[in-house]
Amino acid sequence: MPATDDSFESLLEYLKRNRGFDFTGYKRSTIMRRVQRRMQQLNIGDFTSYVDYLEVDPEEFVPLFNTILINVTGFFRDMETWEFIAAEIVPKVLASKQENEPIRVWSAGCSSGEEAFTLAMLFGEAMGMDEFRNRVKIYATDVDEEALQFARQASYSDAQVEKIPAAYLERYFEDSGGRHLFQKDMRRAVIFGRHDLIQDAPISRVDLLMCRNTLMYFNAETQSRVISRFHFALRPGAFLVLGRAEMLLSHGNAFTSVALKHRIFTVVNRMRTGDSLPLLTHVLDGGSTNGEIAKTRLRESAFDSSIVAQLVLDPEGILILANERARSLFGLTSRDLGQPFSDLEVSYRPAELRSRIDLARSERRSVQLQEVPWNLNFGEPNYFEISVTPLTEPSGEVLGTSLVFTDVTPFKHLQYELRQANEELETAYEELQSTNEELETMNEELQSTIEELETTNEELQSTNEELETMNEELQSTNEELHTINGQLTQRGDELDRVNDYLTSIMENVQGGVIVLDRELRVKGWNRKSEQLWGLRADEVQEKHLQNLGVKLPFDEVVRAIHLSWTENATSGPLTIDAQDRWGEPFQCSLICTPMEAADGVSAGVTLVMNKQDGQQA
Predict the structure, then answer these.
(1) pLDDT tens for residues 285-333?
(2) Which has more pLDDT, 210 or 432?
């Protein structure tokens, strides 16, 4: 086996050992293709690396199993088959049951539950809901626990119930927030459970078993084992429904076709009866008269020329007659006639005949030995059917024993050739079925891929719509920002004009103007103040009045400011002693005017300072 196959088998054993999923019975080409598809999505090149990836990331098992176990199903899938089941199979199942006798149905490989609920609807239609709830149990099984969890919810979208007839949809489903819920009382009759067709014991005493498009994923050996389990599960006369790509090739003796087109079969109970072959017996007269010599010679000639070898023994077991075919076949001579049969080689070769002779005599019946092999020429053996028949009088007295050896070698060869032809035909059918199953599998995968692409397309379309909506919102926001920007520009221009106006006012005031906030930080400083105190406006901006180094009686100024805030009125003029920027003392006139904010609280104060008349700045 190539290294790639070895590593893939190791992967399957790892899944079986660590997760309990036995995929070794699946068709290698199918399961390998699906695993490789998942590996391509992860950019993993070989199976050994993928095993390492599974060991590191156990969450990977979920998407892997979803890729391997393609859950493609639906309500009333292949409508013609369901119509036949409703018209022919369900009535026969009901007719085979006694009144109030329970009915057991098995949906194997149920996936997300649509098939099981379809069966429930058909039996509900045929029996009525009350009788259905009392008598029917539908066992729905699958190996995919995620699909079973979805099935147990019994909730389906509009697209999933699209193929349900309108009358059924109205009768068996309830609307709930855009979803369709299967009727609760009937839902209790459907039992979902995890079941591995390869490893787990089958459900027994089943009246109808549906396993559609599941067997086609298994190899021939596993298919045969699963079908044998189905045969055990079904009661006599029960029905088996398979998928379109599935056939019963190696179990024709256990099932017979009901509707081959729809892949519906019924269990066959074969009567095992032994095959009988015509027996050649010869009754010998004890003697003859002179008038019967001609008849005796005629009988002897007929006996001697028979194409089958025949020996005749008397009641004491003495060989008294052997025809030409027997003499040639067993190498007998005239000296062997009259000898005890038990002393001759033919009594134990090709078969032990002495005990059979005793049995035939004691029970007064013929004893048959079928297909006894005997190698005559050290080549291929010949096969004989040996008949040991007691020869009796009408009164029941035993006259002797007849041994007839019929050469059935040609029939054995024909039987072998027929078996070979049947095996070749079966192999051809299996190959055809395998090809059909491969095509069906590819069709399922293509359908799954189409559904994924449709879902992706819908998601992309939804994303595109969201992007268009976001684009429109961004355009609207951009327009609003443009409008706000225009308003801000307009207000900035107005503010510039106001500032220019205020600056002009402050520059034209006859005196130094200082604007302070509530914390006595400088907010405004006109040119007259620059001349008076020797500090530029950019040097004093946001600085505390006390930190400016201006020669003013700070305490008196602060009292005047607080007085104006307290009385909410202009205080002054107040005459205080100060020094200008050259250190020359002068009498400074101070006027404090409070500034009110919009809420009536004082926002600061404006100080106007000037030298008294007669003093120069």
Answers:
(1) 344 444 455 665 676 677 777 788 899 998 888 998 888 888 888 888 7
(2) 210
Beta bridge partners of 194: 142
Contact 171, 89 (CB under 8 A): no
Q: How many residues can be counted in the chain? A: 617
What is the residue-wise DSSP string for 166-192? HHHHHHHEEEETTEEEEPHHHHTTEEE
Tokens standing for 607?
Answer: 């100080």
The model's pLDDT over 437-469, given as tens digits with 9 standing for 90+, comes to 888 888 888 888 888 898 889 889 888 988 988
Q: Are 109 and 223 in contact (CB under 8 A)?
A: no
Task: Please state the three-class secondary structure of 235-283 as a single string.
Answer: EEEEEEEECCCCCCCCCCCCEEEEEHHHCEEEECCCCCCCCCCCCCCCC
Alpha helical stretches, state H, 57-155:
61-68, 79-84, 90-95, 114-127, 129-135, 145-153
Q: What is the CA radius of gyration of the chain?
A: 55
What's the N-to-C CA distance of the chain in angstroms?
111
| Distance in angstroms (rounded) separating the CA atoms of residues 346 and 352 | 9
Helix 3-19 and helix 28-42, axial crossing angle in degrees, nearest 10:
80
CA torsion angle 341 343 348 353 (round to 10) = 30
Which segment, 20-29, 71-80, 392-401, 479-488, is predicted with the most confidence on average?
479-488
CB atoms within 10 A of CB 114: 24
Among 382, 381, 360, smallest CA distance to 308 is for 382
| Ramachandran quadrant class, 482 (left: phi over 0; alpha: psi -120 to 50; beta: rest) | alpha
Q: How many CB atoms lie within 10 A of CB 570?
A: 15
**CA–CA separation, 25 and 29 (whole Å):** 12
Residues in contact with 51: Cβ distance below 8 Å, sequence separation at least 6, in sequence order: 7, 10, 11, 14
**Confidence at 283, pLDDT banded by 50, 70, 90:** very low
d(CA 143, CA 141): 7
Query: CB-based contacts of 65: which residues, under 8 Å, 6+ apart?
Result: 21, 144, 146
Q: Please, what is the Cα angle at 452 between 450 and 455, to 5 degrees?
A: 110
**pTM of the predicted model as reported, rounded to 2 decimal places:** 0.47
Using CA atoms, how far apart are residues 415 and 279, in angstroms rounded to an integer?
21
Closest residue by Cα to residue 11 from 63, 49, 58, 68: 49
The two structure tokens encoding residue 400: 């002797």
Within 10 Å of residue 322's Cβ, how many Cβ atoms? 25
Q: In sequence order, what DSSP letters do the residues of 42-81 get, joined into one string?
A: HT--SHHHHHHHHHH-GGGHHHHHHHHS-----TTSSHHH
Model confidence at 364: pLDDT above 60 = yes
| pLDDT of 182 strictly over 70 | yes
